[in-house]
Amino acid sequence: MAYRVLLTDALGPEGLARLREQPELEIEARPGLSPAELRDAVRGFHALIIRSGTKITADVLARADALRVIGRAGIGVDNVDVDAATKKGIVVMNTPGGSNVTTAEHAITLLLALARNVPQAAAGVRAGRWEREKWLGTEVCNKVLGIIGLGNIGTIVAERALGLRMKVIAYDPFVTHEVAARLGVELVSLDELYARADFITIHTPLTPETRGLIGRDTIARMRRGVRIVNCARGGIVDEAALAAAIKSGQVAGAALDVLEKEPPPAGHPLLQLEQVICTPHLGASTGEAQVNVAVAIAQQVADFLCRGIIQNAVNVPSLSPEVLRVLRPYLLLAEKLGALQAQLLPEPPVEVTVQASGEVAERELRSLAGDRRRVHVVDARLEQLHPGDRGARPPDDRLPERARGAGAHGHAHDRGRGGGVRRRHGARHQDRRLPHGGGARGLHPDAPQPRRAGRGGARRHAPR
User: Fold this and answer.
1) Based on the number of CB atoms within 10 Å of its own CB, is 3 exposed (0-12), middle (13-18) or buried (19 or more)?
2) What are the Cα distances from residue 252, in Å, to 33, 68, 128, 277, 453?
């Protein structure tokens, strides 16, 4: 079978070459499509490969009659409606490792440029001004760097900052004190970070919980004269509040690689301030990173379509080829059970229970029954055939003893909320609670779990 792949943003030649190595794939590149053109273009394609320039909305996905996978060449998936994709059973993948070093290095570059006013001084020289006294900087050695989000990129920033002899503190509710200590980082509360840091750098995804995280109230709790770096996502920093704080002297300066609206409108208040450094979203813009993400997403999409291998998916569990060989028939069974239940039930179920015994019970069941961040095959099929705004309460992490016997089955019924993996009559169960009034959740591994669905699941970066 030939699979059709649509590229709507520029992808490096190395990535295109990797795709074209697969005889089963038909590649079509159509960058620069308008939203209306994209809605019409997606029909008949099995895969979409995008960067940050393409926005995949629920409206676009409604027209995608054959789509199986969306590949995001990069980390952030805030330009993809992951919930809508999950409800249609579409896998959303990203490339979390391809640009980590590049983005971390850019954050350090901006931090140093901010400390020494490098862009402003260079612009003055080009304009014929020699202003040594005006651009008095500050050393970073022995200064306190506060890192919000000690994930992959935040960890690399911490390592580089320690090399500059900075004192590094961090806030991340999903990192233990032991892990932070091994990095040489002191884990603190968010309020303590604000009070102590001379420099603050942000490395979280943009979510409802992190939007406006750096705002008027939080800036007021910061040390006077703090300097702020944001190479994460626009919208995390309240730009009007930051501009006001710089004018008042509460914030000494800011270095931003991202803005809420890109490119910014004329007369943007931050761009009128000489204490602000702004670059046009260059965090992942190195030759090495572009090659890394292009090759990675091309390989991931090819592996998914041609071999059924799932890697770096943000809304279903990633499976190795070995595990997939064992679980494939059970995944197909789970999908059929979901379709069957959807036709038999008069209304969306409150709970789905998946029971497995024998060989499959010794494997990770989350691919069949979902986990905190991901909606599983049964949920997806129920949503396609029995639409409704449902959420899934995460199961707990209790694992049973080795199960005996063979086989798997599932059933849906209406009973109290809750969830877990448990033993019953020698078999292993995984419950999926589907309370009415909640939306299906397919969150990025580094994104925080919405409060309504309970805490847990998200691995890092979610300030509370």
Assistant:
1) buried
2) 41, 48, 25, 12, 39
Query: How many separate domains does the chain show?
Result: 3
How far apart CA 34 and CA 43 sit, in angstroms, is 15
SS3 420: coil
Q: Which segment, 9-23, 319-333, 367-381, 389-403, is predicted with the most confidence on average?
A: 9-23
- Residue (of 51, 50, 446) closest to 232 by Cα position: 446
Active site residue 281: yes
Mean pLDDT confidence for 287-313: 94
Residue indicated by tokens 């292993």: 428
Instruction: Give the angle 54-303-309 at the CA atoms, nearest 5°.
Output: 105
Instruction: Please indicate, yes or no, if residue 114 is contained in any of the structural domains.
Output: yes
Q: Is 428 a catalytic residue?
A: no
Residues in the chain, how many? Answer: 464
For helices 287-307 and 100-116, give the axis angle rounded to 10 degrees: 150
Do 67 and 114 lie in a common domain? no
Radius of gyration from C-alpha coordinates of the chain: 24
Choosing from 223, 233, 459, 460, the catalytic residue is: 233
Give the integer Cα–Cα distance in Å for 352 and 346: 15
Q: Is 262 known to be catalytic?
A: yes
352, 294: one domain: no
User: How high is the pLDDT of residue 323?
Assistant: 73
* 87 and 7 housed in the same domain: yes
Same domain, 168 and 143: yes
Question: 78 and 35 in contact (C-beta within 8 Å)?
Answer: no
- Residue that is last in its domain, among 257, 278, 299: 278
How far is the C-alpha of 157 from the C-alpha of 175, rounded, in Å?
16
**Identified catalytic residue from 227, 281, 386, 393:** 281
Amino acid (one-letter) located at 137: G
Query: Nearest to residue 68, comparing CAs of 347, 301, 349, 292?
Result: 301
Q: Measure the CA–CA gap between 349 and 379, rounded to whole angstroms.
A: 10
Residue 440 has pLDDT above 80, yes or no: no
Domain containing residue 171? 100-278
Distance CA 71, CA 51 (A): 8
pLDDT for 316 equals 79
**Of 14, 262, 404, 411, which one is the catalytic site residue?**
262
Model confidence band, residue 315 (pLDDT cutoffs 50, 70, 90): confident
* Digit-coded pLDDT (tens) for 217-228: 999 999 999 999
Q: For residues 358 and 279, give the distance between their C-alpha atoms in angstroms, rounded to a whole number.
A: 56
Residue-wise pLDDT for 13-41, tens only, equals: 999 999 999 999 999 999 999 999 999 99
CA–CA dist 456, 449 (Å, integer): 7
Give me the amino acid identity at 145: L
- pTM for this entry: 0.69
